[in-house]
Amino acid sequence: xxxxxxxxxxxxxxxxxxxxxxxxxxxxxxxxxxxxxxxxxxxxxxxxxxxxxxxxxxxxxxxxxxxxxxxxxxxxxxxxxxxxxxxxxxxxxxxxxxxxxxxxxxxxxxxxxxxxxxxxxxxxxxxxxxxxxxxxxxxxxxxxxxxxxxxxxxxxxxxxxxxxxxxxxxxxxxxxxxxxxxxxxxxxxxxxxxxxxxxxxxxxxxxxxxx
Length: 211
Ligand code: B1M
What we know:
By secondary structure, the chain is an alpha/beta fold. About 55% of the residues lie in helices and about 10% in strands.
């Protein structure tokens, strides 16, 4: 029986090899992927953030923990994304311009896939033009934007304004999220939906599309 607290510890100490091995073993034991994410992996990243705030951790430690988190998440992603045949919509997802955080965005993408959406992952540091191209050329009917920095939240408004200026606002629903984002902010910038969690992003997408 795996001691899952070791998964928390592996992410906290940035040990990607160990994070991967424990995740593999836990999955082999039949432990639910979502349980691993919600009860052990995300709390570990929150603790990494707390230590960073208190100057106990610095950027190198953040990078190592992020790498360990990603190594474990890569194993879980296909399991979180297991779904039926017909996509219920096409989502273009990305972390906005100026922002390089992608762990939450990747988790949201996997949950949306699991919720039956086809997901076009535009990556990080995504410009308004890239989102517009995804709507025009890849026929995305939902845009999901992620921002983790207070300084990049404004890029969400810039993107929505650019989508309006491109004359395609009525072709696409826009949902947003990320640690500093609030429902109030989403309303102020004219987004159609907001979620503070990856699981909630699926309901936000359903709600935005179906009203
Ligand atoms: Co940075 N970072 N970081 N960082 N980093 C934060 C965000 C910070 C809060 C840390 C802190 O000070 N406590 C702080 C931001 C402060 C602020 O703006 N108020 C910060 C800072 C300052 C920085 C730098 C400026 C540091 C520097 O260089 N001096 C720099 C900026 C680089 C840039 O982006 N231009 C930087 C860099 C980095 C790393 C590259 C080292 C690394 C990222 C690696 C990567 O992502 N590949 C990193 C990390 C790891 C973090 C913390 C520790 C963890 C983020 C994370 O992955 N969380 C973070 C502190 C923290 O959040 N506790 C921090 C786990 C993830 C699952 O949660 O991303 O919140 P999260 O996603 C959640 C929800 O928010 C939601 O669902 C997800 C799952 O529930 N969600 C959505 C997210 N996107 C959504 C989209 C949706 C819906 C829901 O659409 C519909």
